[in-house]
Write a structure and sequence with these properties.
Number of domains: 2
Order of helices and strands: HHEHHHHHHHHHHHHE
Shape: elongated
Oligomer: single chain
Distance between the termini: 73 Å
Structural class: mainly alpha
Largest sheet: 2 strands, antiparallel
Number of helices: 14
CATH class of the largest domain: Mainly Alpha
Radius of gyration: 27 Å
């Protein structure tokens, strides 16, 4: 008969429970909760510093110009994916559901407003469009209004003559080719007079809830200056942003970046002291205070 063998019992130190002893040999717990806690702490610190106007300090004008040159040539260390996620988490925390600032009442008036906003400010467009849209809020009404009347409504907006012509032309095309309905298709939108890729992206995002990235001057500047998504032209920046921004943030991403560029990361005098991502930003034209 084979001799029965027994395994020696694990020794337990005096005053130590068996459960505690066994836990020592168990796999280490995930570091994710700890990393989330660190990220949350960093977020609170950054938001507090920005609110107090102590996030960062812009350097001299000469240093800023040099920094912008470096950024324009892509000579800035790229962000990690964790940093990109953290930046958009902060944007979401401060403004969970950002809205576009162009006034409109339906997809058609949104399309017209975006066309009118080319090389103009949203504020300037919003001064002209309420009266225009009260008179014509459909393609059929816009065509009936006529180019001359449209010009009268929008004459305070730059390039108003050409824009009035485009508004009438795109209205006519919508009636003939799309039954008076704004299409939710990029190619169809870009075939309309006065509509380019940026305009199509805005309409697809705001009217059809598609996760597009409209790159205007503000998004282009923020993406290059911070090092978030450097590119030589709007399309390069757009494709880079689509690549690095996590899907859960894409629906509102272009609004967050536009608003950040419009009110914080200004072209001439960036308000780094109020920036909620100053500690993540790679721009060498500022000194981070809340590191």
């Amino acid at each position: 008969m084979a001799k029965k063998t027994t395994r020696p019992a694990t020794k337990v130190k005096k005053g130590e429970s068996a459960s505690k002893s066994s836990s020592r040999s168990s796999p280490k717990s995930s570091s994710k909760p700890a990393s989330r806690r660190r990220a949350k702490t960093a977020e609170k610190k950054a938001l507090k510093a920005a609110k107090a106007g102590k996030a960062a300090k812009p350097n001299s004008a000469k240093a800023q110009a040099k920094a912008d040159t470096l950024a324009a040539h892509g000579n800035i260390r790229p962000w990690t994916q964790a940093e990109v996620t953290e930046a958009f988490r902060r944007f979401q925390s401060v403004d969970p559901a950002p809205k576009g600032e162009l006034q409109h009442v339906n997809p058609f008036t949104l399309l017209v407003a975006v066309v009118l906003s080319a090389q103009a400010t949203d504020a300037g467009v919003n001064k002209a469009t309420p009266a225009l849209f009260a008179a014509a809020d459909t393609p059929e009404k816009m065509v009936a209004l006529g180019e001359a009347r449209v010009r009268d409504f929008i004459k305070t907006i730059g390039l108003y003559r050409n824009k009035a012509k485009n508004v009438i032309a795109l209205s006519e095309k919508l009636i003939v080719e799309h039954g008076g309905v704004v299409p939710g298709d990029r190619e169809a939108l870009e075939r309309l007079p006065g509509v380019g890729r940026k305009t199509a992206n805005v309409v697809l995002n705001m009217a059809f809830a598609q996760p597009t990235m409209a790159v205007d001057t503000h998004v282009f500047r923020v993406s290059n200056r911070t090092g978030l998504a450097p590119g030589k032209n709007p399309l390069e920046v757009e494709l880079k942003l689509l690549e690095v921004i996590p899907p859960e943030f894409m629906m509102h991403a272009h609004h967050w970046l536009i608003l950040h560029g419009r009110y914080v990361c200004l072209a001439r005098k960036p308000l780094c002291e109020k920036c909620i991502i100053a500690d993540l930003c790679r721009w060498p034209g500022k000194t981070t205070l809340a590191a």
